[in-house]
Amino acid sequence: MKSPVVIAVIALVAGCAADGQVRLDEGWPAKPPDYDDTTSAWTRHTLAFDAIFKSPDWRSAHAERDAEHRGLAGPARDAVLAQAQADMAGPYEVEILFTTWDRRENDLDRGKKSVWKVVLVDEQGKEIEPIEIVKDKRPGYVLHAEFPAYGDFATAYVARFPHAPPVLGASVRSLRMRVSSERGGAEVIWAAK
Question: 0.85 exceeded by the pTM?
Answer without folding.
Answer: yes
